[in-house]
Amino acid sequence: MTEPQDEYILSLIKEDNTREKGLTLLINKYKERIYWHIRRLVVSHEDAQDVMQETFLNVYRFIDTFGQESKLYTWLYRVATNECIKLFRKRKHIFTSYDEISDQLINKLYYNTADEGDKIVVKFQEAILRLPEKQRFVFNLRYYDELNYDEISKILNMSAGSAKTNYHYAAEKVKEYMLNR
User: Fold this and answer.
1) Measured distance CA(53)–CA(49) in Å, rounded
2) CATH entry 1.10.1740.10 includes domain 1-94
3) Which of 29, 40, 62, 151 minimizes the number of CB atoms within 10 Å of its CB?
4) Phi/psi of residue 5, nearest 5 degrees
């Protein structure tokens, strides 16, 4: 069975009698991609599940505001990324700095890794988590999700040039971290 096209999904969502079916198709089509995007940002499965639930609740609430000036998945990534940012902002009340949030995420990363054979992967993830927030978001979207800079710029509300620069700096920092630790 082929995956339904976004245009078809959106046409179902626009009609009252097929809205639920359209939203179900949308969630089924994108839930795995969105989950892993969120998971790489928030690290823990529990937090990723919570953020994903909030993401799809917002999609349900605000799908009518999607103006199709970008691809549907770009809009979904933006909603998911904004939900991650909300989670980090909530945690800033608990922690005093972004570095403390990063340290907490790194602790979760090591706590959730049982296999000794994953040391390189964990070290790579730690390097990403040590990046400044904006660079980390850009790096994840480019490296893991293979999005182009125009898509990243729409998701993160920045210019494509800024996304490219942030990715370059992030990649250099990750490389340096991997070589020197």
Assistant:
1) 6
2) yes
3) 62
4) -75, 150
